[in-house]
Write a structure and sequence with these properties.
Elements: H1 8-20, E1 34-39, E2 42-47, E3 52-62, E4 72-84, E5 87-94, E6 97-104, H2 115-127, H3 137-148, E7 157-160, E8 164-169, E9 173-178, H4 179-183, E10 191-194, H5 197-201, E11 215-216, E12 234-242, E13 250-258, H6 284-296, H7 301-316
Parallel strand pairs: 4-11
Antiparallel strand pairs: 1-2, 2-3, 3-4, 4-5, 5-6, 6-7, 7-8, 8-9, 9-10, 12-13
Amino acid sequence: MSVPKIGGSMLLIALTVLVAATIGHTSNDDGDVIATQISENEIYGYIPRENLGFLIQSGWRVFAGPTANGEINGKRMTKIEFYLGEKTLLVQAGRGELYIKGFKTSTGALASLTTGEKELLKNALEHNGNVELGEYAELFLSSLNTLSSWPKNMLVFIWNDNDKAMSAVGNDKLATMPREAFNARNTDAVTLVPLDRQAIENLTPPVLDMTATDVKEPESVLSVTSICFALGKRYTGRYFECDDIFCIDRTNHSYVHLVGGSRTCFGRCGAGCTGVPNGNKYTRDCFNHDSCVKNLGITALSCDIMFNFCVDDAVDAPRCRIVN
């Protein structure tokens, strides 16, 4: 449910009144998540400590028309909208598809995240590792982890559907590639073009049908490569360096580093060692991104491009049993 016509503060007040009247805390610590089940597939929530509201909806992305044998095909997806001041941060995920967009609630204009806002999201993550949101808890925490780790000054936009993968990079560029190349992690297939803000602002994720029944869900292929096995060991990562402003020419590099570590958590999906309590995710893509940042700096264009390959890892990768 998008709310482009309503101010974030007004919506937050409405949510606060609603949830406060219906249910108590879902976490152990005083001041953590307050949530209420509005319907079978909808939850409103509010985190008083961070003044952060959210709405969770789940349903089916139903594909057009029945198949030859009368079956209806679709994907089960979950959508979370976080209401942060005058910004809405949308995350919709399911079966390999991922849509993330940050925008001004009143206008729909694309937005980035300030240092203070990322700190607030990080605090919400750290204070609510045991949040009781049932099947939605993992995506809730993964979303907070991803958003709190978002590159500085980069617009919040990632759009990975069945056909293509797109993400905002740098200050004014759009990285795009075929979905098949994204699944193969073929960074050579990434093309950068000027970012058309109006076109991106007009994009909306697939509408979820919260009442559909008897929907058949096809198999999906995830492109996540966990490196939990390498925790505490040295591992070789690969990153590339852009040689021009649209990254047409690139220089490839290899980099060897210890996976994990109590001070850097190198290779973890998320910034530094700030992660979901009682579990962390380490993947090849997140290791490669950390290698890029370590050598080129957090604001490097190539690192922004590589960040897109980390986000679905943060959502879909398994947690490592050994936590550093």
